Amino acid sequence: MAIGRPVSLTNNVASKTISVTATASQTLFTVTGGYRINQLAVFRNGVRLADGSDFTARDGATVTLLSAASSGDVLEFQIFDDFRVADAIASAAAEQTISGNLTVTGTVTGSTVTGAAIGISSAGTVVGAAKTLNFIGAGNTFAMSGDTVNISIAGGGGGGGGLGTAIAYETSSDASPFSYIDRYAKVSENMIFNTTTAGLNTSIVVSVIPNIEINSGVAVTVGAGKTMIIDVLQIGDL
Question: Is 237 helix (H, G, I), strand (E, B) or coil?
C-alpha cells in the first residue's frame, strides 16, 4: 500500500494545451477557445508561472504577463475543463431531437424494463418492449407481435358516444350502472360513410340520436353499399 495520500482521478475532466511563441516585449496573449477562470496553468519555456505573481488571467480569454516576454519565448497554456460528449442525450431534458434511425435492444420482465429497451404501457400496464411502433387505424390498445407493438386506435368520431355515455358517481369518477344518450346532435363538418370510414363491406350505419341537425353548407354523404338509418331502435324515446 502506498504511503500517504494516493493519487485519485476525477471523472469527466479533460485538459488541453495551447502553445504560442512570443514576440519581443509581448505581455498580452489571447488563449484560443478561452478558459475557465482559475482553471488555467501557464508555462514559460517549460517553467510554470504563478498566478498573480507572474501573470494574471481574469477575463476567460486573455493572459497578461507581469514581466514582458523575450522574442522566441514559448508560452504554454494548459486549460482544465469538463469533458463533454458532443450531441449526447440529456437524461432530464424536457424534450430533445434525435436525427436518423434509433435502434433499441433489451427486454421487459414483468413491470421492469432492463437493457436498452423502450417499455410500452397501456393504461399503466407494461405490455412489452419494442423496436418499432406500428400505428394501425385511427386508439389506445397495444398488442405485441414479435419486436413490434401494434397500436390500434378505436373509434375516432365525435358526437353522441355510441349507445350511451356513462354517468359517473357523484363523489368519484367511476362509471355508474347508468348511461345517457343525447336527443340532439349537430353535424358541423362534412361527413362521408364509405368503405374507409364505415366498414369494409356493405353495411348499415345507425344513429341512435333521433334529432340530428346538419349545419348549413355541410354535406353528409352515404357512399355506395351503405345504408343510413336514424334511431332504428328508438332508444332516444326511452
Answer: helix
DSSP, res 49: P
Cβ atoms 131, 146 nearer than 8 A: no
143, 177: one domain: no
Nearest residue to 230 (alpha-carbon basis) of 168, 167, 160, 170: 160
Identify whether 87 is part of a domain. Answer: no
CA distance 145 to 133: 10
- 9-54 pLDDT, tens digit per residue, is 555 566 788 999 999 999 999 998 888 888 899 999 999 999 999 9
Helix H or strand E segment including 214: strand 211-214
- The dihedral built from the CA positions of residue 16, 20, 25 and 26, taken in this order, carries a sign that is negative
Beta sheet of 62-65, edge-to-edge order: 28-30, 62-65, 55-56
Look over the chain and give the mean of its residue pLDDT values, rounded to a whole number: 75
What 3 state SS string does 163-211 have?
CCEEEECCCCCCEEEEEECCCEEEECCCEEECCCCCCCCCEEEEECCCE
Domain count, the chain: 3
For residue 35, the enclosing domain spans 15-82
Decide the pairing of beta strands 148-153 and 141-145.
antiparallel
Q: Is it the case that residue 106 has pLDDT exceeding 80? A: no
**53-62: pLDDT as tens digits:** 999 999 999 9
The pTM for the full model equals: 0.34
Cβ-Cβ contacts under 8 Å for 155 (sequence gap 6 or more) = 139
State residue 82's pLDDT score.
66
